[in-house]
Amino acid sequence: MPMPKIWSFGSINADHAYRVPHIPAPGETIAAREYSLGLGGKGANQSVAAAKAGATVAHVGLIGPEGLWAKERLAALGVDTQHIMQSATPTGHAIITVDETGENAITIFPGANRAFADAQLQALATEARPGDLLILQNETNLQAEAARIAVKQGLTVLYSAAPFSAQATSEVLPHISLLLLNEIEAAQLNAAVGTLPSGITVVVTKGSSGADWTSPDQTLHCPVFPVKPVDTTGAGDTFAGYLAAAIAEGQSPEAAMRLASAAAALKVTRKGTADAIPSRAEVDAFLASV
Ligand code: RIB
Q1: Distance CA 59, CA 103 (A)
Q2: How would you class 226 by CB atoms within 10 Å of its CB: exposed for 0-12, middle for 13-18, buried for 19 or more?
C-alpha cells in the first residue's frame, strides 16, 4: 500500500535573517553582525521538513509576482510545487533577528499568504485521497476552510496553532485530529478557548523540557536532545514536518515524537530556516549516536 501523501497548506516567506548581539529593545537601534536571505515561512518549512523526512509532500501556497525563486527552492528541496500559484500580492516575508543564544524575534509581512481565495483550495477537494494528511498553521487565511475540505475528503488534519490567533484556532479546532503547540501557545489557547474538542491529540513542545503527547488513549513525554543552540528559527516547523512524516509512515507515537525531537534539535544547531532543516539520514545518524 502506498504511503499517504502529505498536503501542506501554508505560508511561503522570504526570510531576512539578522544576527545581532541581542534582540533590540523598544526604541533601540543596533547593527547586525551577519545577514542572510533564504526560504522560510512556517508552511514552507513544514513542507521541507516532511519532504526531508522522506514523505511525499504537495504544497498548496501563494507567492507574489516576484516569488518564483521560492517555488524553485521548494522544488529543489523535494516538495511538489504544482499547486503553488502566483497572485498580484507580493510574496510574504519575515524579518528575523537572532541573538547570540540562538533565540529569535520575528515580524512577518503576510503578503500573498493571506490572499487565498476558495479556488486555490481546489486541489485539496479533487486530488487529495482518503488516508492522506493535511498539515497547516496560522500564517495564511482560509485555514478552517482547508481543514473542512480535507476532513470531507477523508484526510487526517494536523494543525500548528502558530502564530497564535484565538479566532483562527477556534475556527480550525472542530476539524483537526492533532494540535501542535509550544508552551506559550498552549497557555494562550487555554486562556482563549478553555476546553478542547474531545478525541483530538495534543502535542506540546516545551523547549529544553522536551515534548508531551496526549491522545485519548495515551500520554507520553519525549525528553529533549541536549544541543548547543545556534539558531532556534524553524525548530517548531521542523518538529511538525517530521512528526507528520512519521505519522504518515505509521510510526508509533513514541517513535514519531523521538524522530521529530531529534530533527528539531539538529535544526537548532544550524543557522537559517528551510535550507537548514536536516535530512532523514542526518537525523537517523544523530539518533544512532545518542
Ligand atoms: O517558524 C519560523 C518561520 O516563521 C520563519 O521561517 C518565518 O518566515 C516565519 O514564518
Answers
A1: 28
A2: exposed
81, 59 in Cβ contact below 8 A? Answer: yes
Span 166-176, pLDDT tens digits: 999 999 999 99
Specify whether the CB–CB gap between 145 and 9 falls below 8 A: no
Decide: 42 in ligand 1 pocket, CB within 6 A. yes
**Cα–Cα distance, 239 to 256 (Å, whole number):** 10
Q: Pseudo-torsion of CA 42, 46, 52, 53, nearest 10°? A: 150
Q: Grade residue 121 by pLDDT with cuts at 50, 70 and 90.
A: very high
How is residue 167 written as a grid cell?
Answer: 479566532
- How much is the pLDDT for 148? 98
| Total-model pTM | 0.97
Query: What is the per-residue DSSP string for 238-257?
Result: HHHHHHHHHHHTT--HHHHH
Distances (CA, A) of 231 to 17, 43, 58, 196: 10, 18, 27, 32
Residue nearest to atom 7 of ligand 1 (CA): 41
| Torsion, CA 190, CA 236, CA 261, CA 188, rounded to 10 | -10
Backbone angles phi, psi at 270, to 5 degrees: -125, 145
> Please, what are the domains in the chain?
6-12+40-91+112-289 (3.40.1190.20)
Active site residues: 237
Q: Which atom of ligand 1 is nearest to the CA of 14?
A: 8
